[in-house]
């Protein structure tokens, strides 16, 4: 049932959204860890309301790219502009102002293991809003309801499955009503059915919240379902960028190999 | 080895600077600070009380035979009280807390690091140096002198019990004789030098925890190195502070 919902929404995605203003602009971004050159002159632009999927094999620097965008790592050279603001050299206070506008779903959800599901989602609200306890509780319930986790408020992260942790991670990422959503392997380690449920959920949330998203994944089905545009990374460079169908039909050897292997 | 040590101290300096910067900006995470007082203070209470009682008993038993041999048995209460307050109480408290709290902080922060929870805190626009490090370091600094009082109290009390079992003496008389030669500065400086032990334990353990790499094995390494390094630096600080105290409070 949900699969069909995803396909129906995918249809609307592929009809193409009206290109908006650039929200996220990366120019010639380089990043090395010691002698290992992870990102080599990456340039990407994501416009308002668009979902960009970054594909690539493990170890090609996809997750590092997301960490650079949210300022968890610093780039060696290049430029990253978020809503027109360059993040290189930004003071922590200004960076935090930008971070509040971004939601981040980590690969393993990264829920705080000593806090309950409810407390995890309430965490950003407690720190960045002046909501009363009852308003916060209502907002947490609303968020958990939107990801289908309203029954598990009092459970600890260790008591719920990987798929459920991703749902809670999504609810936490959306708590402050971000404009940009960064998703690191949202379907990694999940079975195909749960993966498609997560895809459907992401699609639903993207539409409800009018989000601009960057999704790092090596799950082609997921990229096809949730992304407007796809960029393929290899050895720290963007090999090809375009719609999913454009990449799937490409004659480039590397692109064909990637799409063949994962299809 | 030398290079790695210099690099380690350099990284610790940079880490400490980030903690200082985080400490002076709002919000002050009062709820987390009080949670850490409970976690580090209240939960260390039974262990330091037991350690204090043990050193009091051992001191009484060991000192008695020596003092009897030199005909100075009447000095026994003063020897016990002075040893505990001046040296044994502070250092034993420092080492016990380094073991219990150092391992706990190293493992907790290490585990949070490898599961990206610390990154998640930072991505939520919350400063982890304030929420996780400053709160723990402050709790260690405040709690150590209080725990030292517990160790001192239990040590002196257990010392009296051990002495009274062989030579009946009232608690009042024992304390009277024990504290007759002890001034306030004899008590104050050694007790408050444990603030430095708290700073060392908190800072080193948090530092080791937050630089954890390599999954569960890395967490184990961080917990162990937190205890080893905290204990080592507590002992070194003790030697240096004793010398300083002797200079300023001769």
Walk me through this protein's architecture:
Chain A has 263 residues and is α/β, with parallel strands linked by helices. Chain A is built from 10 helices and 10 strands. In chain B, 85% of the residues lie in helices and 0% in strands. Chain B is elongated and about 65 Å long. The mean pLDDT of chain B is 91. At the A-B interface, helix 3 and helix 4 of A face helix 5 of B.
Please write out the topology:
The complex is a heterodimer of chains A (263) and B (250).
Chain A (H helix, E strand, L loop, with lengths): L1 H13 L7 E12 L2 E12 L3 E6 L5 H8 L7 E6 L2 E2 L5 H9 L1 E4 L11 H12 L4 H14 L15 H12 L6 E5 L7 H18 L2 E5 L3 H7 L2 E6 L2 E6 L1 H5 L4 H10 L1
Parallel strand pairs in A: 3-8, 3-9, 6-7, 7-8
Antiparallel strand pairs in A: 1-2, 1-4, 4-5, 9-10
Helix pairs in contact in A: 1-7, 4-5, 4-6, 5-6, 6-7, 7-8
Chain B lengths: L1 H22 L6 H12 L3 H25 L6 H39 L2 H7 L4 H39 L4 H8 L5 H9 L1 H17 L4 H34 L2
Helix pairs in contact in B: 1-6, 2-6, 3-4, 3-6, 4-6, 4-7, 4-8, 4-9, 4-10, 6-9, 9-10
What features would you highlight for this structure?
heterodimer, A: 263 residues, alpha/beta, Rossmann fold, 6-stranded mixed β-sheet, 4-stranded antiparallel β-sheet, 10 helices, 41% helix, globular, disordered N terminus, B: 250 residues, mainly alpha, 85% helix, elongated
Order of helices and strands of chain A: HEEEHEEHEHHHEHEHEEHH
Strand order of the largest sheet of chain A: 6-7-8-3-9-10
Order of helices and strands of chain B: HHHHHHHHHH
Overall structural domain count of chain A: 1
The helical percent of chain B reads over 70%
End-to-end distance of chain B: 39 Å
In helices, the fraction of residues of chain A equals 40-55%
Q: How would you classify the helix and strand content of chain A by structural class?
A: alpha/beta
Average of per-residue pLDDT values of chain A: 85
């Amino acid at each position: 049932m949900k699969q069909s919902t995803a396909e129906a929404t995918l249809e609307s995605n592929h009809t193409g959204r009206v290109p908006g203003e650039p929200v996220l602009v990366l120019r010639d971004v380089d990043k090395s860890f010691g002698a290992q050159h992870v990102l080599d002159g990456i340039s990407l632009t994501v416009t308002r309301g668009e979902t960009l999927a970054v594909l690539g094999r493990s170890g090609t620097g996809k997750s590092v790219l997301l960490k650079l965008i949210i300022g968890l790592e610093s780039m060696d050279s290049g430029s990253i502009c978020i809503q027109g603001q360059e993040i290189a050299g930004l003071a922590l206070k200004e960076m935090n102002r930008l971070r509040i506008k971004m939601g981040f779903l980590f690969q393993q959800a990264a829920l705080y293991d000593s806090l309950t599901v409810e407390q995890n989602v309430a965490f950003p609200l407690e720190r960045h809003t002046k909501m009363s306890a009852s308003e916060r509780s209502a907002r947490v319930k609303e968020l958990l309801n939107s990801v289908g986790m309203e029954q598990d408020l009092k459970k600890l992260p260790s008591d719920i499955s990987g798929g459920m942790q991703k749902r809670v991670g999504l609810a936490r990422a959306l708590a402050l009503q971000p404009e940009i959503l960064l998703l690191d392997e949202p379907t990694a380690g999940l079975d195909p059915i749960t993966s498609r449920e997560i895809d459907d959920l992401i699609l639903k949330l993207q539409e409800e919240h009018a989000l601009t998203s960057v999704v790092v994944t090596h799950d082609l089905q997921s990229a096809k379902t949730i992304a407007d545009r796809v960029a393929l990374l290899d050895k720290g460079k963007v090999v090809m960028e375009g719609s999913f169908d454009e990449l799937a039909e490409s004659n480039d050897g590397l692109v064909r190999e990637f799409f063949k292997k994962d299809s | 080895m030398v290079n790695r040590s210099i690099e380690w101290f350099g990284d610790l300096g940079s880490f400490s600077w980030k903690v200082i910067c985080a400490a002076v900006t709002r919000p002050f995470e009062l709820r987390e600070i009080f949670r850490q007082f409970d976690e580090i203070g209240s939960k260390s209470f039974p262990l330091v009380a037991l350690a204090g009682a043990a050193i009091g008993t051992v001191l009484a038993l060991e000192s008695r035979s020596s003092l009897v041999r030199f005909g100075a048995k009447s000095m026994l209460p003063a020897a016990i009280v002075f040893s505990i307050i001046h040296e044994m109480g502070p250092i034993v408290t420092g080492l016990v807390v380094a073991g219990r709290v150092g391992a706990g902080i190293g493992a907790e922060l290490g585990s949070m690091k490898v599961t990206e929870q610390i990154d998640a805190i930072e991505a939520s626009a919350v400063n982890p140096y304030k929420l996780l490090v400053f709160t723990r370091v402050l709790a260690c600094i405040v709690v150590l002198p209080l725990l030292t009082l517990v160790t001192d109290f239990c040590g002196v009390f257990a010392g009296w019990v051990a002495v009274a079992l062989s030579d009946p003496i009232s608690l009042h008389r024992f304390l009277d004789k024990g504290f007759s030669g002890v001034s306030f500065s004899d008590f104050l400086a050694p007790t408050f030098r444990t603030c430095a032990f708290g700073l060392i334990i908190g800072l080193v353990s948090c530092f080791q925890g937050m630089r954890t790499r390599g999954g569960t094995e890395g967490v184990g390494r961080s917990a162990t190195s937190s205890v080893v390094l905290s204990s080592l630096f507590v002992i070194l600080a003790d030697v240096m502070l004793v010398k300083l105290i002797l200079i300023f409070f001769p």
